[in-house]
Amino acid sequence: MKYLPISLSVILYLLLYFLRFQQGGWEIESNIFEEQRNFLNEKIKEFLSSPKSELLSGMILGHRENLPGELRLALRDTSTIHIVVVSGQNLTLLAGLIMNLSGVLTRRVTIIFATLAVIGYLLLSGVQIPALRAAIMVSLAYTAQILGRENDGFWGLGLAAGLLLLINPAWISDLSFILSFLATFGVVVVAPILAKHISFLPHFLKETVAVTVAAQLMVTPVIAQNFHQFSLVSIPANLLILWTVPYIMVGGIFMLFLGTLWVFAGQVVALALNVLLSYFIYVVSFFGSLPFAWEYVGEQIWIVWIGYYCILAGVLMVINKKN
User: Where does 36-95 show beta strands of DSSP type E?
Assistant: First the structure.
């Protein structure tokens, strides 16, 4: 009897979803602050050379159309292309970096800063629908974690995804929506389980390894199915560069803010960014150039991927129970 309310809620939601699906959902288009974003894109080019400027612009403004072809291929072959977009994973990493200040600032202050960072990131991206969806999912899921209710992260993420699908049921097959959901699920739900299992590592390294492996485990099947390739170097490549992402994003925002007020201050920040971006590009290019970087994957029936996630869920349950 205790599961009856949950069952009724699921049935009611499915009925609402079916109704919205029949109605067609709302097709929302949003790309505000386009002129301001173009101005900031040009400002980045003043401080950074190519391809560093295009890489930073993709991370914080969502402009990745001008990425050099060679770098784009290297990002694809190392399964790191999702980093150069506005995504749930990037938003979570940014908020996580700020929440690490909780030892210096009060939890209330760090929560406020993390919220402002997500809103600022959303505005920088032009409040595009993929960014808005990612921000909503990250905000609800991560709020549960930062309030000390880690076990509610899954429910917060599920609630956000469910509400978004009522707005437009067709998003359930949208690749951007799926990748944002899976990457955020990996960071918020799977990573804490893995982190407990590798508690022997230093805190900084433990969090990086857990987040990287968790995100890759969740998105790999979808990437393989849609792009027909499986990256054999995705985990080491992501391990070596993922820790730089929040620092690059924060540094990029400070460079734009300070550089608009005082060019010299922007140039000082750009020096540090040059080091991080050069390291990022070197790692991606190195792993992408390896002859065994990726393998072709043919079309797979959906039951194969369901089996993959079932096995993954079973392994995680065993690990969690052991801990």
Answer: none
Position of tokens 């980045």? 44
In tens, the pLDDT along 251-304 reads 888 898 888 888 888 899 999 999 999 999 999 999 999 988 888 877 767 777
Which residues are CB-contacts of 126 (< 8 A; sequence separation ≥ 6)?
A: 30, 31, 32, 33, 34, 37, 61, 62
**What DSSP character marks residue 299?**
-
CA–CA separation, 35 vs 38, rounded Å?
Answer: 5
Encoded tokens for 130: 């993929």
Q: Residue 139: how many CA atoms within 13 Å on its side-chain side?
A: 17
Q: Quick one: pLDDT at residue 11?
A: 75
Tell me what percent of the residues of the chain surpass a pLDDT of 90: 7
d(CA 107, CA 115): 12
CA-based radius of gyration for the chain? 20
